[in-house]
């Protein structure tokens, strides 16, 4: 039996980095209610959350386990429920996922994005760019972001100091006017990068809201109109991303991988972030391309 675990609290667990971290009750409840989402990706699997009471019984029959995202917390929860350790990633693999998921990993793919550790660096960027967004290195789903306009407030300074103390740095990016959000969806198996397709989605202040149900060809046509007069801009960006992934991610990771992109008002495409886990875009792509 193939057992799938839906753990949307994955990003929070990576940020904390502790195996004994307890996710918020709201995240755990959502995981229990929405675990059937994994059926869209794996229709023949048994899909549960890591906190489901029936997991102890089901785990005895499992021959393969797939998680929404792997981290120390979900591994610990599965071990508590008698899931065989042989079916789980080892500690080195999980540590590698966390290391690669750090936002600094994809800085080489990003324009006008920098790692900073001090107020002076942020203030200098504000003088040059006026508006920047600060991102905690391990964060996701709109969490761990601070939008700065011209000056830093005392709250901004406290937040910066706290994140630098906990995570070593903060990523600062120039704020852009985004006209479209999309993603490149992949699967890495046996050191081979497989392109699964595109997904198009809407956000608000960096928070995911919903996917837009379009096929891959419809998304390519929509982005082509937004990036005119440039030709093949999306395919060029995809080729650049894939070349970088082949060297920097594929040799060290296996599993689902998503690269979020954004189109700005100047018709340019930028890399926003990388997710070494399943994504709602993958779910939407699977649904839209049946």
Question: How would you explain this protein's 3D organization?
Answer:
- It is a single chain.
- The chain folds into three domains: 2-99, no CATH class; 104-174, Dna Ligase, domain 1 (2-Layer Sandwich), CATH 3.30.1490.20; 177-288, ATP-grasp fold, B domain (D-amino Acid Aminotransferase, Chain A, domain 1, 2-Layer Sandwich), CATH 3.30.470.
- The protein has helices at 10-16, 25-33, 37-41, 55-58, 72-80, 91-101, 119-129, 154-167, 216-226, 233-248, 280-288; strands at residues 2-5, 46-48, 64-67, 113-116, 131-135, 145-149, 170-174, 178-189, 192-204, 207-212, 255-264, 269-275.
- The two termini are 23 Å apart.
- It contains eleven helices and twelve strands.
- The chain is globular and about 60 Å long.
Summarize the helices and strands and which ones pair or pack.
Elements: E1 2-5, H1 10-16, H2 25-33, H3 37-41, E2 46-48, H4 55-58, E3 64-67, H5 72-80, H6 91-101, E4 113-116, H7 119-129, E5 131-135, E6 145-149, H8 154-167, E7 170-174, E8 178-189, E9 192-204, E10 207-212, H9 216-226, H10 233-248, E11 255-264, E12 269-275, H11 280-288
Largest sheet: 5 strands, antiparallel
The CATH topology of the largest domain turns out to be D-amino Acid Aminotransferase, Chain A, domain 1
Rg (CA only): 19 Å
Tell me what portion of residues adopts beta-strand conformation: 25-35%
Report strand order across the widest sheet: 10-9-8-11-12
**CATH level 1 name of the largest domain:** Alpha Beta
Number of strands: 12
Helical proportion, percent range: 25-40%
As residue ranges, the low-confidence spans are none
Count of runs of 4 or more consecutive helical residues: 11
CATH superfamily of the largest domain: ATP-grasp fold, B domain
Shape, principal axes of CA atoms:
globular
- Mean pLDDT equals 91
Please state the structural category: alpha+beta
